User: Fold this.
Amino acid sequence: MKSNRKQVIGKVVSNKMDKTIVVEIENLVMHPLYKKSVRRRKKIKSHDSKNECSIGDIVKVEETRPLSKEKRYRLIEILEKVK
Assistant:
């Protein structure tokens, strides 16, 4: 079965909570008037069941059902561990 859930790649900016990480998603958008690239950042909360992420890791997260008041994503894999 093909999953049609959105997957995004971002950087972990916080892991202070139990089984939860905060991931910052960054994308480049063209400014409508000045035609210059502008960075748009968004922070999302994601479920990390094993508490294996640390700050600075590059991770892939996937949309899922609401897990709490603000958690709507879950960790799929850690693409790059911070040194």
Notes: Residues 7 and 23 are 13 Å apart (CA to CA). The chain has one domain: 7-80.
